[in-house]
Specification:
Elements (H helix, E strand, L loop, with lengths): L22 H14 L13 H21 L14 H8 L4 E4 L6 E4 L3 E5 L16 E8 L9 E8 L2 H7 L4 E10 L4 E10 L2 E6 L6 H12 L3 H6 L2 H16 L10 H11 L6 H6 L3 H5 L4 H10 L3 E3 L5 E5 L8 E5 L11 E2 L4 E2 L1 E5 L5 E5 L2 H19 L27
Parallel strand pairs: 3-5, 11-14
Antiparallel strand pairs: 1-2, 1-4, 2-3, 4-5, 6-7, 7-8, 9-10, 10-11, 12-13, 14-15
Helix pairs in contact: 1-2, 3-4, 5-8
Amino acid sequence: IGERDLRPPWRPGDRPVDPDRADALDRLACLRRAEAVGFRPSLRGEGIDPQAAREAARVRDDLIRLIHASDEAAKTAAGPQDSLVPRLLLAAYPDRLAKRTAPTANRALMVGGIAVEIDRGSCLTAPTGKPRPELFCAYAVQGVGQGGRHATMVRQGAELDEAEVEVVFPGAIQRRELVSYDQQRQSVATVVGWYYHDLCLRANPGAQVDAGRIAACLAEALASQARALFDEDEVAASFLRRAAWLRVQCPELEVPTFADAALGELVLSLCAGCRSRADVVAKPKLPWLIGGLPHALTRAIDEQAPATLLVPTGNRITLQYDDPARPPVLAVRLQELFGQRETPRIANGQVAVLLHLLGPNYRAEQVTQDLASFWRNTYPQVRKDLRSRYPKHAWPEDPLSAAPVARGRPTKTPAR
């Protein structure tokens, strides 16, 4: 292998290449043929370089003499069997193992991530549509590291299988779990592969992978989306807004900030048992938000910055905490507040909510923090305007003594 090739340069079609496991076996056959006929020049007609064969024989004889001179046992040892040649080549070139991109392909990937192409003069060439063994040792290559438009060519190679690789290098083939986040599918992809160094010999996409690694991969991918994940959960998002508002209004409570970094840490726990972003989105987030808080603080947030307020009709209306520096908004139909004299207050009574009093069309007819003043000064004019537009709805002269109406229209009394 280290000497000049016994096969002279050739052009496609100059000579047929018989399929074999290794180009080295073809060269050994050439050497035997050349020795048998005394290295005569006519060998060129058979595709054998007689001078290269003579040089190879000389180097071989020199090596054998060196071995015999240093090892008595080698003098009587039998020569190597042809079946061992691929293994011997792998032992000599452990970094040259390669795998075809497909059983019928003449392109391959070599250890180190080097893409190679099998030369058409190699016996390893796969005829069109005919599969060949995928693994081989590319012991004679040309153009490694040149890059650009020059392909790395495998001039000579020797086919192997996994069992032979394991015999030559016991334990070199290792099982690895590959876990990665598929951005397009927004889920974790897992593959179990068997590797020789960095070369994947085979893979099993459906094999079981450690759940902890899947969760860690998902958490790493979603860490930057932590706040968005909590905002997508209506209950959790409401809690975060209420906590942010109460932290400004009642600093003595020392409500935590729930910064992005803190939410990112919670995502790791949220990802346990999950494989995709959708799995995480489906999980209720509130338990993780309040899990690390003192019970008294959680209760204070619920009491001093409630998610809803009870109105006279018995309905609970959601409070909108849009700005920590401003009072929350209670958007409620005006008729649901009949009978209520004062504006609801929260945060230990320090803050009056901002009432958006809605008409039957759910549009705000009045915005106020002083409900008593509205009933006394503004309601008469609002009543006059709304009665003309919605005559079938209840518009009592004295809203404080009237029964609240949940749907705007009073309930009809059945005829007797």
